[in-house]
Task: structure prediction
Amino acid sequence: MDLGLATHGLNEESRFKILKRHIYAFIKHFTIKKLFNFIKTEYNLKTKKIRLNSLPYILKLETTNICNFKCAYCYDGRRQPVEGERAFGRMSFDNFQKLIDDIGSYLFKINLYGFGEPFLFPETLDMIAYATKKNIGVGVSSNLNIDDDTLPSRIVESGLEVLIFSCHGVTQESYSKFMGKGNMELAFKNVTGILKERKARGLKTPFIDWQFCVTKFNQSEIPLAQKKASELGIDNVRFIKPFFPVSAEEDFISDIFPRKRLELSNHDNPGCSWPYRSVYINYDGGLLPCCKDTRLLSNDFGNVFRDGFKTIWNNDHYLKSRALIKDPANKELLCDTMCVRCPVTQIHLR
Result:
């Protein structure tokens, strides 16, 4: 089973820990209904069905696209949207609840993050708690640069299963150069608080996965990061390839992930499982087949708050896109969705 980007890391040990996380979510949140849906999903993916009798079992959901940072090459430089692009905003708890009530019984996991900072707004913790009560595992990615002494205890109390800690440096200099601004010590204070609260409650969650994007200016800090993770008791530290454009400045291209490795290859992406296993939902309900090009409103396949999820899942956009994935070399296909511009489908046209 190809888990794609879900298991990326610098070494096998790191990838194995992440794989264990997915297995844990599968076992913990198992139901007969979810199992049957999972089997149908994998069969539909294997046979490249176009119209599906299954629903996704993993949801990527962005509660907000607002962020307190301006990381290098992130979300088009955090510039203000222009006409035809998605504005900045946040999802209401009521809309989240309606969505989970609709399809939550099929979900093993929700990745509750996108291009914003989830913990900027208190309703995110309510969403985590609600999904947890509905037997769904929740993961969040955060820079943890929130100055609130109550945040660690509220995170642990919410039932969060996985916390991806985004921190790309162990010195304030490299941290600021990558992340634009922020206080590294505040971030680690919150990590320490979460670990302390977790231990006090006799819990093993949230599993803390430190995500460290490797650049030329921070690659020398890898041993320091490993040492700090061990000292604090962080569960995993993952040194990963950043999602930079090939044209990124030289100082952001590491020796570990050289410029040529920023390019997509057929080996990296033998196919696309997104239109079968998962989906990306923006804070405003706009649904996309994956997490690429979330700004353009024209990329939306529909709006779950307006149209309903199940109506969108087999609509014309999805049928055309799955047909393209099934046979990208078919010149007679008239697909006008964002999938036609995807490097994964273009690879197979070469």
Q: What stands out?
A: The first strand starts at residue 58 and ends at 61. Confidence is low (pLDDT under 50) at residues 1-7, 265-269.
